């Protein structure tokens, strides 16, 4: 029976049937999301990734009547992002939520999450020591990605320059440009503060955040923990982060000093 099933799945007919099913599911999701666009201003959780945005997405889907989309970039490989951007370009109101994380912690998490794309082989096949992983991280990871994200995404597509005004000491700020509203908060503020920020931003007084912590389920979670415990970064690396406008804008003062000292040799 297993052999018969395997043969069936290898046929061109089965593959066409699976493709048809996937396209149908996507179309049904498209119709549903398009319908909800008209119920309330859509919420676009548009962020650089690795900022616990899946918890926000999951929570809002259960508590907000309007359409919700979640993306790290706008492009054809994410049809919901293009749908929302087209809605915005037509002059409709859109609400954007973009949490931020300190760039060093982001880069570490991004490196493990995208290990195969960065190194050319899946982490499950990795036999690297912690020291070798640290060297790969320093040499191969795109460390400028978080530093450039707001200019290449929020400013480019929605004409909002988050650097135009000083960031709030509360770790949370809103911006407005035309029909686009943006909420930015650091992920190190408390959940209660995040809830209050989203409540005010969306006029959703009863919003509650339900965390989805899946880091312990990752195949690399032990290596990730060891990596962070042993990582010490070169002075030149820390200086580059410190002097970036991203770091200075969101993590100046005591917060910035604490971050840099954590990774200093």
Provide the fold topology.
Layout: H1 2-9, H2 12-36, E1 43-46, H3 53-63, E2 68-71, H4 79-89, E3 94-97, H5 103-113, H6 115-119, H7 130-140, H8 145-158, E4 172-177, E5 180-185, H9 191-202, H10 221-230, H11 235-243, H12 245-250, H13 253-263
Parallel strand pairs: 1-2, 1-3, 3-5
Antiparallel strand pairs: 4-5
Give a written overview of the molecule:
It is built from 13 helices and five strands. Helix content is 54%, strand content 9%. The relative contact order is 0.12. A hairpin with a 2-residue loop joins strand 4 (172-177) and strand 5 (180-185). The chain has a five-stranded mixed β-sheet with strand order 2-1-3-5-4, sandwiched between helices. The protein has one domain (39-263): Rossmann fold. By secondary structure, it is α/β, with parallel strands linked by helices.
Keywords:
265 residues; alpha/beta; 5-stranded mixed beta sheet; 5 strands; 54% helix
Helix share bin? 40-55%
CATH architecture: 3-Layer(aba) Sandwich
Low-confidence stretches: none
Radius of gyration (Å): 21 Å
Average pLDDT metric = 91
SS field, number of helical segments: 13
Order of helices and strands: HHEHEHEHHHHEEHHHHH
**End-to-end Cα distance:** 60 Å
Largest sheet: 5 strands, mixed
Strand content: 5-15%
Indicate how many domains the architecture comprises: 1
Large-scale geometry:
globular
Q: What fold name stands as the CATH topology?
A: Rossmann fold
Q: Tell how many strands the DSSP assignment holds.
A: 5
Q: What is the structural class?
A: alpha/beta
**How are strands sequenced across the largest beta sheet?**
2-1-3-5-4
**CATH level-1 class:** Alpha Beta
């Amino acid at each position: 029976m297993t052999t018969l099933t395997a043969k069936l799945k290898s046929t061109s007919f089965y593959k066409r049937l699976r493709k048809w099913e996937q396209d149908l599911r996507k179309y049904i999701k498209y119709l549903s999301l398009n319908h909800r666009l008209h119920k309330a201003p859509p919420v676009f959780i548009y962020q650089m990734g690795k900022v616990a945005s899946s918890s926000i997405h999951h929570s809002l889907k259960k508590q907000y009547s309007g359409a919700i989309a979640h993306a790290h970039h706008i492009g054809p490989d994410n049809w919901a992002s293009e749908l929302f951007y087209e809605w915005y370009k037509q002059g409709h109101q859109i609400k954007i939520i973009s949490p931020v994380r300190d760039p060093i912690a982001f880069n570490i998490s991004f490196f493990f999450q995208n290990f195969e794309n960065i190194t050319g082989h899946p982490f499950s096949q990795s036999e690297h020591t912690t020291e070798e992983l640290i060297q790969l991280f320093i040499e191969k990871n795109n460390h400028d990605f978080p530093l450039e994200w707001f200019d290449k995404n929020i400013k480019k597509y929605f004409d909002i320059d988050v650097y135009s005004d000083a960031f709030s000491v509360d770790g949370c700020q809103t911006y407005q440009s035309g029909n686009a509203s943006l909420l930015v908060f650091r992920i190190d503020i408390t959940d209660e503060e995040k809830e209050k920020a989203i409540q005010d931003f969306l006029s959703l007084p009863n919003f509650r955040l339900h965390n989805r912590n899946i880091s312990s389920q990752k195949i690399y979670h032990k290596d990730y923990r060891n990596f962070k415990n042993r990582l010490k970064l070169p002075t030149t690396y820390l200086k580059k982060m410190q002097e970036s406008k991203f770091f200075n804008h969101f993590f100046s003062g005591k917060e910035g000093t604490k971050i840099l000292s954590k990774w200093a040799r």
